[in-house]
Amino acid sequence: MEKITGGVTAPKGFLAGGLHCGVRASQMKKDLAMIYSQTPCTAAAVYTQNKVYGAPITVTKNNIANGMAQAMICNSGNANTCNADGVEKAEAMCQMTAEALGLSPEDIIIASTGVIGAVLPLEPIAKGIKELAPQLTADGGALAAEAIMTTDTKAKEEAYTIEIGGKTVTIGAMAKGSGMIHPNMATMLGFLTTDAAITTPMLNKALKLAVDDTFNMVSVDGDTSTNDMVSIMANGMAENPMIEAEGAEFEAFLTVIKEICTSMAKKIAGDGEGATKLMECTVNGAPNTPLAKAIAKSIITSSLTKAAMFGADANWGRILCAIGYTEGDFQVDTISVDISSTKGSIHVCENGAGVAFDEEVAKNILLEEEIHIQVELNQGEGTATAWGCDLTYDYVKINGDYRT
Fold it and tell me: Which residues are catalytic?
């Protein structure tokens, strides 16, 4: 497996682009992104678990029910959620995209992100689609990644290659997400592309397995959004032997999908609204893996723990508190906790109780931009990692005036 440049256009046969069409008031911000495969793709997606969800999710589910797609259209600045005409407008966006690319509307994956409940204006989108389709290029992934951003401070893209069946297979990705991020998907959008030859059932299986351990282990603020979606299109242009069942080739493909999703998940967590630090929490020795996941999520979603990380305060009691209110059957008197960064590591808890440590050393460790919390339960083989960020003054400021 090798990391390369190129994002969603790194795999063979994919073109992409992004521009400002006018959904967002600021002409300095792109707000329309498109991805197109030169050949039909097998396709799969996972979605938010919020009962209130955007119209684009309804339309995408319908469109890829046959396991196929060939293009993606996404606007930022407006979520097209909680609108009476939302589905109608999402379908219209698919129709416009299909006409511009010479496809069927059912070939389109559609997504929207931004303000919830605002009426989506179709006129600028219609104009933008007509302008954007002819501009798609094999190096346009960065423009597309920029166009899906909302409160993100940086674009997020990734690409890897791997040998499968004697052929070089490439997987690319782009994502957005900064706030309204919580396990079981979030206000994040992720779009993966690959030139692998793989059936829809196996593509769907790989995506779900990867998302469970990556995107579903991210939290910024405890709010599960309405428009979350991670999709993948595979056009088969790598000409590897078709991946039709589990085995060595599927495992190789899954490994790189997990790697790319892990990288994107960490980028989302580290770019949380107002965040100054990425928090990574690993739980080992839990009675089982689901419980390890629950404990790791509990720690990185704890507002008090997040605030302590912002203040570089090694308040380990908040970590133990978050562990303690996690649902499940486990003991607390065997738990140990370590906190580390590039400045070193410090042991703060042993057998569920505090140990003496140097507060100044701890503070220097916590002043770094990436903080690791290591929890050992000593009660089994369960292990999991979750990602989050600190809670800062700027988070409240960003969300206090988000619409204005």
Answer: 187
